[in-house]
Amino acid sequence: MKCSAAAWGTALTLVTVMAAAAAPAVAHGQASDRARSARRIVLTNSDGGRAVTVTSGDDIEVRLTGNRANGLTYSWSRPTSSEPTVLERVSGGTTPSGSATAVFHAEHGGTATITAQRRCHADRGHYCPLVVTPWKAKVKVEVK
User: In Å, what is the CA distance from 10 to each residue of 2, 7, 14, 23?
Assistant: First the structure.
């Protein structure tokens, strides 16, 4: 079956019109609000001591990596917020390998500090140094 260029053009126009009609209408300014939707900032071991500024609605994900060598496991505690009303932890946990994660949601304006500690855990017959390594990041939340 042969189709003429005119028939293809009509079909293409019809598909385009149908797609445009099915697309949701976007009010003026709404597109920029969607573009400014919540951000996710990721902090890792190397971000200890860092200060960040976020906007209410943003998320801060903390990923701390533990390590294991020579019968010793250096494990992170689950990160916590000094001000849960400003920066609420919505998830978090630790792994057997010593890593820890948490996601914090910026709720209200203010400043909070996220903290965690790294400690040594020894296998039988091994000994840990008596050192606790702190990790912290200061987060300023600005209201949108």
Answer: 15, 5, 6, 20
pTM of the model: 0.73
The 100-106 sheet, strands edge to edge: 40-44, 59-64, 100-106, 87-94
Closest to 101 measured CA to CA, from 110, 90, 112, 111? 90
Task: Give me 18's structure tokens.
Answer: 């149908």
pLDDT (tens digit, 9 = 90+) per residue, 89-139?
999 999 999 999 999 999 999 999 999 999 999 999 999 998 999 999 999
Which string of DSSP letters, residue by residue, matches the chain?
----HHHHHHHHHHHHHHHHHHSPP--TTHHHHHHTPPPEEEEEGGGTT-EEEEETT-EEEEEE--EEETTEEEEEPPPEES-TTTEEEEEEEE-TTS-EEEEEEE-SSEEEEEEEEEEEEEPTT----S--EEEEEEEEEE--
